[in-house]
Write a structure and sequence with these properties.
Blueprint (H helix, E strand, L loop, with lengths): L1 H22 L6 E6 L3 E6 L7 H4 L7 E4 L3 E5 L4 H13 L6 H20 L1 H13 L3 H20 L6 H13 L1 H12 L4 H8 L11 E2 L2 E2 L6 H22 L5 H61 L6 H11 L4 H5 L1 H16 L4 H15 L4 H11 L1 H22 L4 E3 L13 E3 L3 H27 L2 H4 L7
Antiparallel strand pairs: 1-2, 2-4, 3-4, 5-6, 7-8
């Protein structure tokens, strides 16, 4: 079966894109096509030309979210990364008619207006897009690091452990370069110049530089320093393109784009970003050490609304900073508890609406993804449309987050060595102060709390009589 799926996947993804395009109003109606880990984000010129209800019926579509700017089509991880370029290819198919060219120009103008209308939201999305392409490498290296740690603890294959450690740490030692490359690419600069400036952060030669009366150290400032350096490089490059004569552009622009931000990075940004990165780590530790239960309750309870709004990816730079500073992020296991509350709520709805075959079918199809930490199908297919179960799911996440936060406060610190996975998929990436076994136990117990509270709260308070009545098909 897997082999068949592999062979048919390209055709299936093309077919999905071809089915989505006319329902979005056709190529002329598309302003932009982007994607995150699970959702295809499509900005359209004329919303009346798109059919949101029909989009939900396309095979493979797990849910559709409509906002003032775009359609967010939930396709799931892996699938969305393959469907997005197919949709872009179809939308960018060459057209030679005057009408098509005029429509494309109108699309670009409307897209610029839409981007300028919500600058803060656009900025957050662009920051997230810098880090999203790095997630597969973070996951891969995190798993390899976990395997190396497991072998070291079991005293097995001692000659292989250093090799695995080197493989796992290679990407993390140069992550600043990748962040710089992605930052310049996202903000309209030359990606390789962004990477070149960000490489200053990790070069061993910085140990010979004094900044604010202190010697710098390689990696100081981490991803925040790299992001700031590359962003500065983008603006320097743009300024050079405007003022440098065209005959000198090929020499002067790269020279100044690397030199000026490089000096600012060495004599300012690395120190400042290093202080900010250290402060994030200290604050996260202090927050959980002195108020772990309350902090966990708030984080676990509020994370589902952030996912619903698509703002959760703004946390990626914080997670990445914690991973580079401490080796793991203590926030992700707590935030993952929100998904546990969602699963518990969905199970309660499944039990309570015993005769509603349509809702139960949606839950059955979305539940495996929910157990693996992919919450959008359950959010947009079950809890949010029904209303009350979304609130009780948040309650389950809050209680589970409070539980994990309390254990952190009591000394059982648990974190994740990579970002991206959640739910059961996070188990291989867990790390704790008292070993992997205790980290797994703490996280697993938190999931059970989330499942239980989400189920009980939804069973007794999340399903109204109207939902259970004849119209809802309930029992």
């Amino acid at each position: 079966m897997p082999a068949d799926d592999d062979h048919s996947a390209p055709g299936r993804h093309s077919a999905t894109a071809a089915a989505l395009l006319p329902l979005l109003g056709g190529a002329a109606n598309l302003l932009s096509v982007t994607h995150c880990m699970t959702r295809l984000r499509v900005e359209v010129r004329d919303r009346s030309a798109a059919d949101g209800d029909a989009l939900r019926t396309v095979p493979g579509v797990l849910g559709v979210v409509e906002d003032a700017e775009s359609y967010q089509i939930v396709l799931g991880p892996g699938t969305v990364a393959r469907v997005a370029p197919e949709l872009e290819r179809l939308a960018a198919a060459p057209a030679v008619s005057a009408e098509a060219l005029a429509a494309r120009g109108a699309r670009l103008r409307a897209g610029q207006r839409a981007r300028n209308a919500t600058p803060f939201k656009l900025f957050l999305r662009r920051i997230a897009q810098i880090f999203v392409p790095l997630i597969p490498a973070l996951i891969g290296c995190g798993l390899i690091a976990g395997l190396a740690g497991l072998l070291a603890n079991l005293h097995g294959l001692p000659s292989l452990v250093p090799a695995l450690t080197a493989i796992a740490s290679g990407f993390m030692s140069l992550i600043a370069v990748f962040v710089g490359y992605q930052t310049a690419k996202e903000f309209g600069g030359t990606p390789i110049l962004g990477g070149a400036v960000a490489a200053v952060v990790v070069t061993p030669g910085v140990t010979h530089v004094d900044a604010f009366g202190q010697k710098l150290s390689p990696g100081q400032g981490g991803v925040l320093g790299a992001l700031a350096a590359a962003l500065l490089a983008v603006y320097v490059e743009r300024g050079c393109r405007r003022v440098v004569p065209e005959a000198l552009d090929v020499l002067c622009t790269p020279f100044l784009t690397v030199l000026l931000p490089g000096l600012v990075t060495l004599y300012g940004l690395m120190f400042v970003a290093g202080e900010v990165s250290s402060a994030i780590g200290r604050y996260a530790d202090a927050l959980l050490a002195h108020g772990g239960a309350a902090a966990g309750f708030a984080l676990g309870g509020l994370f589902l609304p952030l996912v619903m709004l698509g703002l959760h990816q703004a946390l990626i730079p914080i997670h990445t900073t914690l991973i580079t500073e401490q080796g793991y992020t203590v926030l992700l296991p707590i935030l993952a508890m929100a998904g546990a509350g969602q699963v518990g709520a969905a199970l309660a709805v499944y039990v309570r609406l015993s005769r509603n075959t349509s809702v139960r079918k949606v839950i059955r199809s979305a539940l495996p993804a929910g157990l693996l930490g992919i919450g959008e199908p359950l959010i947009y297919g079950v809890s949010l449309p029904l209303g009350r179960p979304f609130v009780t799911a948040c309650a389950g996440g809050a209680c589970a987050g409070g539980f994990v936060g309390l254990l952190n406060q009591l000394g059982d610190k648990v974190g994740a060595t990579a970002i991206g996975p959640s739910g059961w998929a996070l188990f291989p990436l867990l790390k704790g102060d008292h070993g992997v076994g205790e980290a797994v136990a703490v996280y697993g117990a938190g999931l059970l709390v989330g499942y239980g509270v989400g189920f009980v709260a939804t069973y007794f308070f999340g399903v109204s009589e109207e939902m259970r009545g004849p119209a809802g098909g309930g029992g």
